[in-house]
Each structure stands twice: as structure tokens, then as C-alpha cells.
Design goal:
Chains A, B: It is found in: Cytoplasm. Two copies of one chain form a homodimer. By secondary structure, chain A is mainly alpha-helical. Chain A contains seven helices and no strands.
């Protein structure tokens, strides 16, 4: 039977996983609004972001209570601070989904993403959504090997982003500057969602092992 | 005479101000490399970022030591966590400066920013740099009124960003897709630097007053 500190910590990580699920929905719906030029879904993503913000505040309060009442030191202290950072990143991923939804809303009734580049953008969106879904499981199961694997998949997003630049900067790009700018910013938003997913996965590795895989990587 | 906790906290805020100075240099030099297509300065900004990363780690260690040894509660605890968040944001601002320098480097020997839009981009860069410089002073002097004023100036960056979009999307834009995409991403990077500056200023307000101006704003 676990002590009070670790029981409360489990509750915090449970809430982090729940917020991660909300973020996955946000990414998924924002992409749907983008590719279908659906203003109602875009509005839903934008208005639902306050729920993620509220959930973040609640997790922060739990963490402050843990720090104040349980006075953890050493590894336990760093785990609570890691949780505080994870919830900040999850909120940021929600904000980035809102940015995607706002580009969708701005171009309605047109679809912001021209048909010929939709496969690339859809793939970026799917990679981002899949990473968020996997992070949720990584948090639930404290799955270190899945977390390390997620870090490797970051390269796929980089490749897709380069592919999108090649397309919009190519001679056969006929959709003008506005669509190209939208694609560049959308790519940036999905890339940042993926970056945060990797960062959260790395924090889970740290929480479980006490080792930061980024530190190990930078030493390599 | 201050107690050990507040003396160590002063040291942390001194280091935060120093890092803020390094970030101001990064923003300033990245912009210089961008507008002068100077690859050497761009390389300097990119390689100097490790110093900001190292300084961040040192501040984090100081904060963990403060939390472990001094076991602060209530307001003092939140101040240390605020410092941890401030240093994370400062590191991020350094990363964003590196992104600016990399766009500069990618276009050398050309200047990434066409002459006709340089006034707008220079202004964005100057607003960002000025906000970083002011944040340094806000940290040093715990200047709440200057911090609240900084929050208001965020709107200037939004206006400049809209102006840059109007230019690149206008019929008389003759510089093609690549330059437009660069401008859109550069605008995003400078905007994010400004966002982080405002966020850090808000954290200083919280550190001094115990009130988060964003919370107050969202209630209004």
C-alpha cells in the first residue's frame, strides 16, 4: 500500500493523462475543421480550450499542495516539478490546436489547405495526434520504452515539414502566397505539438528512471 | 538583514536577469544576421545558445536546492516555482532567436527579408528586443508597474504582425512564396519572444504581489 505522497502523485498523473486526452481531441477536431472547412468544429476547439486551461490550474494546485504538505525532497521533489512542467506543455499543445482551428476558421468557406498538399498536412496532423495519444498511454503506464521510442519518431515530423516546404516552394505551386503561408504556419503548429509530446515523454522517462534522456543524448 | 531563503532567492533572480541579458543579445544579434545576411553572426547566435541552456540548468539546480533545503511553503514556494518557469521561458526565447538566425543563414548570401518589408520586420525585432531588455530591468527591480505596462505593449507586436501579413498577401508583393513564408515564420518567432517576455513580466508581478495579472484580466 502506497504512502499519501505517492497516492496523491498518482492522482496528479491520472489528471495529466486526462488532459492529454482532451489535447488529443483538440488536435483531432482542429484538423477536421481545417480539412473540411468546418467553422462549427473550429469554434468548438477554440471554446473547449478553456476546459484544458481550467484542468491545468487544478493540477497545478494539486502539485502545490503536494509540495507544501508533503515537503518532498530529492527525486520526489523533481517528480512533482516535472508534473508541473508537463501540465504547462499540455496546455500549450491545446493553444497550438486552437491556432490550427483559427486558420481553418479564417479561410471558411474555402479549405485553407489545397487538395494537392492535403496528404502531407493530414500526415503531419496524424503524426501529431498519434504522438499525443501515445503520450497519454505513456503517462498512464509510466512506459519508459514507449517514451524513448516516441522521441525517435520526432524525425518523421521533420521530414513531413521539409516535404511541405518543397511543395509550396516548388515551381508547380499554383495556390499563391496565402495558402503557402498557412501551410508554413500549420506545419509549425503541428511540429510544436510533436515537440511537446516528445518533451513530455522524456519527462516520464525522468519520473520513472531519474534520468533525463535529453541529457544522455546531448552527452552522446 | 534577510534570511538565508531570501538571500538565495535574490541570487536566483540575479541569475535570471543575467540570462535575460544573454537573451537580449541573442535577439539583437539574430536580427543583425537576418537584416545583414551575416552568416558569422548567425553562427555565433546558434553556438551561443548552449550558454543560455547551461545557465538555465544552473538556475534550476539552485531552485531545487532552495526547495529541498529551505522547504518553502505557500507564497515562498510559488515564488521558487515561478523562477523555474521564468528560466524555462528565457531558454525558449533563446531557441526562438536561434530560429531567426537559422533563417538568416539559410538565405545567405541573400537577405531573407526584402527591402520593402524590412521596416516592419525591423520594428518587430526591435519591439521584441526592447521587451526583453525591459524584462531584465523588471526582474532586477521587481518593478510591478513596468511589468503591467509591458503586458499592454503586446498589442503593438500583434499590429506589426498583421501589417506584415497585409504586405506579403498584397497584390504588389513581388518577392514570391519563399520570402513570404520566411516573413510569416519570422513574425511568429518574434511574436513568441514577446509573448514570453509578457509572461515573465506577469510572473514578476505575481512574485511581488501574490496576484497573477492574467487571472485578474481573465476575470475582467
Amino acid at each position: 500500500m502506497r504512502d499519501v505522497f505517492h497516492e496523491q502523485l498518482d492522482a496528479v498523473f491520472g489528471d495529466l493523462a486526462t488532459i492529454c486526452g482532451q489535447v488529443e481531441t483538440a488536435v483531432c477536431q482542429a484538423t477536421k475543421s481545417l480539412l473540411e472547412a468546418d467553422v462549427e468544429i473550429a469554434e468548438q476547439v477554440i471554446s473547449a480550450d478553456v476546459d484544458i486551461d481550467r484542468a491545468r490550474v487544478e493540477v497545478e494546485e494539486q502539485c502545490f499542495e503536494l509540495l507544501s504538505l508533503q515537503q518532498p525532497v530529492a527525486g520526489d521533489l523533481r517528480v512533482v516539478v516535472a508534473a508541473l512542467r508537463m501540465v504547462t506543455e499540455l496546455e500549450r499543445m491545446g493553444d497550438l490546436s486552437v491556432h490550427v482551428a483559427k486558420i481553418a476558421r479564417m479561410r471558411v468557406p474555402d479549405v485553407a489547405v489545397p487538395a494537392e498538399i492535403q496528404p502531407t498536412v493530414s500526415r503531419m496532423a496524424e503524426v501529431a495526434r498519434d504522438m499525443v495519444a501515445r503520450v497519454e498511454q505513456i503517462i498512464v503506464h509510466r512506459d519508459v520504452s514507449a517514451a524513448i521510442e516516441l522521441g525517435r519518431d520526432d524525425e518523421i515530423m521533420d521530414q513531413l515539414r521539409r516535404a511541405s516546404f518543397t511543395q509550396v516552394l516548388g515551381d508547380d505551386w499554383t495556390h499563391g502566397v496565402e495558402a503557402a503561408v498557412d501551410i508554413a504556419l500549420l506545419g509549425r503548429y503541428y511540429e510544436r505539438i510533436a515537440d511537446h509530446a516528445v518533451s513530455i515523454a522524456n519527462r516520464v522517462v525522468f519520473v520513472v528512471t531519474g534520468e533525463d534522456p535529453r541529457a544522455a543524448a546531448s552527452e552522446a
